[in-house]
UniProtKB/TrEMBL annotation:
Residues that span the membrane, as ranges: 7-30, 42-59, 79-102, 114-132, 153-172
Subcellular location: Membrane
Pfam families xrefs: Cation_efflux, ZT_dimer
Protein name: Cation diffusion facilitator family transporter
Organism of origin: Chitinophaga ginsengisegetis
Top-rank taxon, per record: Bacteria
Amino acid sequence: MLKKELRVILVSLIVSFILTVAKFSAYFMTHSVAILSDALESIINVVAGGFACYSIYLASQPKDANHPYGHGKVEFFSIGFEGAMIFIAGVLILVKTFQYFILPRELHRIESGLWVLSATTLANLLLGLYLVRSGKQLSSITISGNGQHIMTDVYSSAGLIAALIVIHFTGWTWLDPAVSLVMGGLILGKGYQLLRRSISGLMDETDMKIVDKVITILSAHRRENWIDIHNMRVQQYGNNYHIDCHVTLPYYLELNDAHDEMKKIEKLVNEGFAGSEVEFFIHMDPCIPSCCHYCLKEACPVRSHAFTGEIIWTRDNVLPNRKHG
């Protein structure tokens, strides 16, 4: 897994470096501030790619006494670093744009710059699709974040190409800083999104999609001894997950039988999260008489209340720290 992730991010790093050089050559060719904006953003791709290589390596290191949950949290630092770099690039682009509004420069060889920019945009598109697909396959938020950044670069470059075509045929050179201004705003927005995701991960904000996925898996394979599941908490460490929850079981189960039920839960969820490792810390709760009305165990020898109906597991009753009903 590590070799695949490093290979993917190294491809991104090498391609991004080549495309950055090409874009700067297009800027020196045309003196277009919009192309300069695109080139500045590409520098971030190279810097972020280098940091991503290190974070992927560190995230793959095994758990130790100082890091009992592993080193996967570094991936959130990685996307936070990338977000900060993108945000800084957006600010620099806006500053440079306002300078061009005050002291405009004549554009040169727009047609040549268009050919270079079109080639780099196509290469970036292929790279972005490759990274997004690889990030999903490898369950790597670092690779996925890098791919999303590349795709944003593609969209802004496509808009830039359209603007340069208009400038080439109309001579409306004021469009150049205007497009750069829009690109700077979009880049600031993307930087904010990555920073927001980084902070959410570092603060252990609950990913409701993961919670829903766990609930769906357990509901589809629900066993009669699993009376209810509550107080569920999910933490992400790289492409691995740590889940705490309480499971209510018949109070008369022997310890070996209760342990087997816990192992079944752990196995089911791990099979549903192919490519990731899910670690469970399960607290076993004994059932109480108020559980009888929704307990699915038909041959229960100690039932004190009649069954009235199954309770469907949802976020509303799985996340709070209380037994159902």
